[in-house]
Specification:
Layout lengths: L1 E5 L3 E6 L4 E7 L4 E2 L27 E4 L2 E4 L12 E6 L2 E7 L2 H6 L4 E10 L2 E10 L5 E3 L1 E2 L3 E3 L11 E13 L13 E11 L10 E4 L5 E6 L2 E8 L5 E5 L6 E8 L18 E3 L4 E10 L1
Antiparallel strand pairs: 1-2, 2-3, 3-4, 5-6, 7-8, 8-9, 9-10, 10-22, 11-21, 12-20, 13-20, 14-15, 14-17, 16-19, 17-18, 18-22, 19-20
């Protein structure tokens, strides 16, 4: 099912499968900001990464002495969410644990995805409730894919990503099996901009830890249309595009793929969130379209 939100500036589409954002249209210029989801290249548009971000070592983890299996980015992106609340400009979706999820993720939870329009912005909120008796271990992240180029007549290479402040941040390389390598590579050296190119993601995503910036903008010098992406509260950021894909993913993460040498103990995983019984956890990102 497709849920549509609208205000005077934006029209937004969200699928109940995966609570996946699939469209942001700026109405005054009929401009679509979200990638089409062409299955021949990459069939997703904005998957929700839960209860892990990225890959586990051997696709498995150990909890309370037992080994469990989870595939890359977890199961929420392929699950059917229920629409539980909403109006013309706001929608709230929920995914709860089930007998199927408990087989490989032995935790009780409610995962809420909230989408709300605010002028020219879409605000996306993740809320996790621990409905079980034990501490809940989880990671969560966004993976929205934004169209590049946004308009006709300019190329992918005309665009760049602009950070709000000068960064000195290495990238953390990803191994062939999707794990974080032990040695970082020099990348952002007194720079606040990444020029987009078709070969930028040849070695998989650009992964950054603990950037100073909490905003990154997609812009083109030859056109006034772009977006501002705010990700305060997310310690990791991924940037990625599939080969041949006319998009760039801006991915705010609370969590990260396993390191190559990780011992697979869930409680010791880098970036893992811990939530006591009966407590709730909340983060949000915002995209402003111009």
């Amino acid at each position: 099912m497709l849920v549509t939100l609208e205000n005077h500036l934006l029209s937004v589409g969200i699928k109940t499968k995966g609570a996946e954002l699939c469209s942001i249209v700026r109405k005054d210029c009929s401009l679509e900001y979200i990638w089409s989801g062409d299955p021949a290249i990459w069939g997703k548009t904005s998957p929700v990464l839960f209860p892990i971000v990225g890959s586990l070592k051997d696709n498995s983890y150990i909890y309370n002495g037992q080994r469990y299996t989870l595939s890359r980015h977890g199961f929420a992106r392929d699950a059917e969410f229920a629409l539980v609340e909403g109006d013309a400009s706001r929608a709230v979706f929920v995914l709860r644990d089930s007998p199927a999820s408990l087989k490989n993720y032995p935790f009780h939870f409610d995962l809420y995805l909230k989408y709300e329009l605010d002028g020219d912005s879409l605000v996306v909120t993740y809320e996790v409730m621990n409905t079980g008796p034990a501490v809940l271990y989880f990671s969560i992240g966004g993976h929205p894919a934004f169209r590049v180029p946004l308009v006709e007549g300019i190329s992918y290479e005309d665009y760049y990503l602009q950070f709000e402040t000068t960064e000195n941040a290495p990238r953390w390389p990803i191994s062939a099996d999707g794990l974080i390598q032990p040695l970082a590579e020099s990348f952002l050296n007194h720079r606040d901009r990444i020029e987009l190119s078709r070969n930028l993601f040849e070695k998989d995503a650009l992964v950054f830890k603990h950037l100073l910036s909490t905003k990154v903008s997609l812009r083109a010098a030859s056109n006034n249309h772009g977006l501002d992406f705010h990700f305060n509260g997310f310690p990791y950021l991924g940037l990625w595009a599939a080969k041949g894909g006319d998009f760039v993913c801006i991915e705010p993460w609370c969590g990260i793929a396993d390191a190559v040498g990780h011992d697979q103990l869930l409680a010791e995983k880098e970036g893992i969130e811990t939530l006591p019984s009966g407590q709730h956890w909340r983060r949000q990102w915002r995209v402003s379209c111009f």
